[in-house]
Design brief:
Helix content is about 45%, strand content about 15%. The protein is globular, with a radius of gyration of 40 Å.
């Protein structure tokens, strides 16, 4: 019988509470989720792989950190220069507990206890220093070392320890000097000077100590040094390659909670443990199990899973009877080795690319260039490199290299040549082509390099050529293109699927309907010329899914006929019931199928949107003479990353290849317009747009576009966007936009949102939604009148047309040259143009919602887009999955009676649900006023009146609203609403009944409920019987 543990004993730091079940039946442990895919002794092999990987990483970290720390996990005391014992805050709750843990940290070592066993020390109590003295004497005698190891006691969190207990520890330990070579390391978070010790401990205690200070490396620079010396060092190849998520968590925890190397080591240690803890395939990190182990029957599941992965990656050809074929097993092992080599080669090339990018960047900084804003720390750059997000930085490095002079190029070539030469053999052998190209560029430089010898332009050509090569080379190393793989996966998804269970007749080319939904939608996208409207896209998708449904039904029917079944004779009555049941279910099946079609289309379109294949329209401009819609298009991901108007300044994930397209509503054709002679290196990021007919040629159109360019040599988060206005011209029906000019003025064109152009192609007005590009005060401008409207002319330049406006947004121009400007505050300003092109406010119309773009119809009415919920609208920018309600407003001249009282303009907010609510509420109010008269005098109930009112308001008479326009499920909606109304009416009748009504009228109710309702049900449902 085990003794009951004393949980109140302060000297005990842990307790063993054995499990004692009520019955003696053995309770099995639940198997691991991956256990069925493991091999014999797989857990042992993974532990060995983990130990090797972590030991290798830890040894490299010690070298990278340049510390002289001894190995705390080394159990071989014969080679240790110091033996250690750790004391933590929980170990020092009392003097006895502290001394016991101090001594146990040294003496509880199994192979040393073999030397000590039988000595007198074993009879001593565990907290007696004589126990430590005898143990240390045994070590000294047993190993007879010339230089005896020190006994180091590390006091963690020293400021939090009880000073009285620490004083006693120092006093007791001093009595055993010099017989015990004790060294205390005090872990202090305070500065290096000894103010804490002098203010906390008396002079008598300090007199026992010989103090010296040592600054332990800490801070983010230490973490960067460790990472650069391990996972980003070309001379070191770790067994485990960390990903960006581990590095992000490591950096966040290190900066927020614990700026010590121990914390970083703990997180990296946990990352290694987690990697090897579950997945059986992790034992393949450095070696492959022998073929006899893989050939065992218990390894079949492991081999099957591994084979499927390799075959899906095209690394292993399809083979049968893998478990019994020595040739197939040899191919499998060879494929595993090839895959492992490819992974480590890819990681090695990433480290080479990162090293070259860092070398070029540091060189440019040394030459006086501003650089990429990486700063002194490179951890964020490491994360971007692992995420594949260094594309813009690499491109800018190439631009900077093109500006170098002859002597600078020679110096850069020399440093890069030295870097390539210093690579280890495995890294250098894979970069022979790059080294050859570098040597050719070195030889191409003239022998006498001066600052002014580039008369022929040869140096500029070398720099430009080398800059382009450097960009492409680094992108191949750091940012491998995944787009080709994604497209291949969409076009031929069966090549990436598990092919183990496919029959021989399935190896032929699959039909389009046999592909996944996203692949079907993508095929239709390509067949349409990559531009199509949403409705036609849905119809083409629906056609393929109808084919898919038909073929799957035929397959199921053939399979069902092939199955044996007992004959059954069915009568005419049974057949009639079966037909009725089928007809009854047919309507519901068709309704569910239509809902499934829409859901699958939305899901497939969302998948393609996530992959970046769908362009989103930023603004639409109607060319009224032709009816063509001009669309400014961008990507979904770019809008959520790069929208300066919404304070989104992630230029690294922005799309600078936006475009303009036209949409013909009559034919449904969408045409992408190509830029001609527009060769800006900074690309095009669309926002506002205007299309104006030329005053000199009715067939010619001028297109004014706002281009949110990324800033040069600066971070967009610090300076904002460097926006310009681009002017193009086109011809009606053309598929090209010819570049004319660029307007840029940082003092006036600050944060443009929308633009209106003039027919001369040389002047325009635009709105600045903010007065500053970035900063704290920018967020407060929504409540201040600091925005403006600007004016630009090709001859006179740009200037503010009107200032001190509040959050200007959309802008439009009428034929009489009146300009209308909307505001996020919900107002519309009417502006009059002056002779000097400035603007004056003549009128203002206020609304109850945030206003966006504005357009003018042929009757002169304004059509404005609005957002009733401003918070949902703002949240939609950062998370597009969050829905934000929108609405349309029509503002026109008020010709009604209210105009007599000064209401100049009429604001209409007409919606179909609003009309339905008005009609329903009006009927209820009217009927409640005359219900007594109608019921008592005319004997007409509310059902008849409601039906008549619905007919009058419906599409056949007044056509005020049409329930069939509420969507494809209008029948279902109407039926459910009718059920709710009927249930509510019955409940109201039940509430009005007297208390004893049921008992008094039991017979009549029974007659009405049972036979009468049954007959009515038969009559109504007769068509379905």
């Amino acid at each position: 019988m085990l003794a009951t543990p004393n949980l109140d004993d302060p000297n005990q730091i842990s307790f063993c509470i054995p499990f004692a079940p009520d019955n003696e039946e053995e309770i099995p442990f639940s198997p691991h989720v991956h256990q069925k895919h493991d091999i014999p002794e797989g857990e042992k092999l993974r532990i060995e792989a983990y130990t090797t990987a972590w030991r290798k990483c830890l040894d490299r970290i010690k070298i990278a950190a340049s510390t002289d720390a001894f190995d705390l996990d080394d159990a071989n005391e014969t080679s240790a220069t110091a033996l250690t014992s750790h004391l933590y805050l929980n170990d020092c709750i009392s003097l006895a507990s502290a001394m016991k843990n101090l001594i146990a940290g040294f003496v509880d070592r199994p192979h040393i206890l073999e030397k000590v066993r039988g000595r007198s020390a074993v009879s001593l109590v565990s907290y007696d220093m004589d126990m430590l003295l005898v143990w240390y004497t045994a070590i000294r005698d047993a190993y007879a070392r010339e230089h005896q190891p020190k006994l180091v006691i590390i006091l963690h969190d020293f400021e939090q320890l009880d000073p009285l207990i620490v004083q006693d520890i120092f006093t007791i330990s001093s009595l055993y000097i010099p017989r015990l070579p004790l060294v205390f390391i005090l872990s202090l978070s305070s500065p290096a000077y000894l103010s804490f010790l002098h203010s906390t401990y008396p002079k008598a205690t300090l007199a026992l100590l010989r103090l010296s200070t040592y600054a332990v490396p800490s801070g983010e620079k230490v973490l960067e040094k460790v990472l650069l010396g391990t996972f980003f060092d070309i001379e070191f190849e770790p067994d485990l390659i960390i990903g960006p998520s581990v590095l992000i968590y490591l950096t966040d925890y290190y900066n927020r909670h614990n700026l010590s190397l121990d914390a970083a080591l703990s997180i990296l240690h946990l990352a290694h443990m987690k990697h090897f803890s579950g997945e059986p395939l992790t034992l393949l990190v450095r070696s492959t199990p022998a073929s006899d182990i893989l050939a065992q029957q218990s390894s079949f599941s492991f081999v099957e899973k591994l084979t499927a992965l390799l075959q899906s990656s095209q690394l292993l050809p399809t083979a049968s009877n893998l478990e019994s074929s020595k040739q197939s097993m040899s191919s499998l092992i060879s494929a595993i080795d090839d895959a492992r080599t490819a992974v480590y080669s890819r990681a090695r090339r990433l480290r080479v690319g990162f090293g070259i990018a860092k070398l070029v960047h540091d060189f440019m900084i040394g030459q006086g260039y501003k650089g990429l804003g990486w700063g002194d720390l490179n951890i964020d750059v490491m994360i971007l490199a692992l995420q594949g997000g260094l594309g813009p930085d690499i491109k800018y490095l190439g631009v900077m290299v093109k500006k170098l002079r002859a002597t600078q190029l020679a110096a850069l070539f020399s440093e890069m040549h030295s870097y390539f030469s210093s690579l280890p053999w495995d890294g250098r052998s894979g970069e022979e082509e790059a080294r050859t190209n570098l040597v050719m560029n070195i030889n191409a430089l003239p022998p006498q390099q001066t600052e002014d010898n580039d008369v022929t332009g040869a140096i500029s050509q070398i720099a430009a050529k080398f800059g382009d090569w450097l960009v492409n080379y680094l992108k191949r190393l750091i940012n491998p293109s995944l787009r080709a793989t994604i497209i291949a996966g969409l076009l031929q998804p069966h090549d990436f699927a598990d092919t183990r269970h496919r029959r021989d007749d399935d190896q032929a080319e699959l039909s389009l309907w046999e592909l996944p939904d996203a692949s079907i939608l993508f095929h239709r996208y390509l067949n349409s010329g990559k531009m199509l409207n949403l409705y036609d896209w849905f119809l083409s998708f629906q056609l393929e899914l109808e084919t898919q449904r038909k073929n799957l039904k035929e397959r199921a029917a053939v399979k069902a006929r092939s199955l044996p079944s007992s004959p059954r004779k069915r009568g005419e009555k049974d057949k009639a019931k079966a037909r009725a049941r089928e007809e009854h279910e047919k309507e519901e099946v068709i309704e569910k199928w239509h809902m499934e079609l829409q859901a699958r289309f939305m899901q497939a379109m969302q998948d393609l949107d996530y992959l970046g294949f769908i362009k989103h329209t930023g603004q639409i401009v109607l060319h009224q003479p032709t009816g063509l819609l001009y669309l400014a298009c961008s990507t979904h991901s770019s809008r959520t990353a790069w929208t300066p108007a919404a304070d989104l300044f992630d230029s690294e994930h922005a799309s600078f290849d936006d475009y303009v397209a036209t949409y013909d509503p009559s034919s449904g054709r969408v045409t992408r317009l190509k830029f001609v002679h527009f060769e800006s290196e900074r690309g095009f990021s669309a926002h506002g747009m205007d299309v104006v007919q030329s005053s000199s040629n009715s067939e010619e159109l001028f297109v004014y576009l706002i281009n949110h360019r990324a800033p040069l040599n600066q971070s967009a988060h610090e300076v904002g966007a460097d926006t310009s206005v681009e002017v193009f011209k086109t011809v009606v029906g053309s598929d090209t936009l010819t570049y004319i000019r660029t307007f840029e003025d940082p003092q006036v064109i600050i944060c443009p949102n929308d633009v209106i152009g003039y027919p001369d192609g040389q002047s325009f007005y635009f709105t600045n939604d903010h007065s500053i590009r970035v900063g704290l005060f920018r967020a407060l401008e929504l409540f201040r009148s600091v925005s403006s409207v600007g004016y630009c002319n090709a001859q006179t330049g740009c200037k503010p047309a009107i200032t001190k406006m509040q959050s200007t947004n959309g802008i439009a121009r009428a034929e009489n040259d009146t300009i209308y400007v909307t505001s996020l505050s919900g107002s519309i300003s009417f502006l009059e143009r002056q002779s000097d092109n400035t603007l004056v406010v003549t009128d203002t119309v206020s609304t109850d919602r945030v206003l966006d773009n504005v357009s003018i119809d042929l009757e002169g009415a304004l059509w404005v887009a609005g957002f009733p919920n401003v918070f949902a609208w703002l949240k939609h920018f950062s998370n597009p999955t969050t829905l934000a309600a929108s609405s349309g407003l029509r503002i026109s001249i008020n010709t009604g009676e209210s105009s007599f009282y000064g209401e100049k303009h009429k604001v209409d907010k007409v919606t179909t649900p609003g009309l339905a609510y008005i009609c329903l509420g009006g009927f209820v109010v009217a009927f409640s006023m005359f219900s007594l008269l109608v019921k008592e005098k005319f004997y007409i109930n509310e059902v008849v009146l409601g039906t008549a009112f619905g007919i009058l308001m419906g599409p056949h008479v007044a056509d005020i609203f049409d329930p069939r326009s509420w969507g494809p499920d209008s029948t279902f909606i109407t039926r459910e609403v009718t059920r709710i109304v009927l249930a509510t009416g019955l409940f109201a009748i039940g509430v009005e009944l007297p208390k004893s009504y049921m008992a008094k009228h039991a017979k009549s109710l029974l007659v009405m409920v049972v036979p009468t309702m049954a007959i009515g049900w038969v009559i109504v449902a007769g068509d379905h019987l």
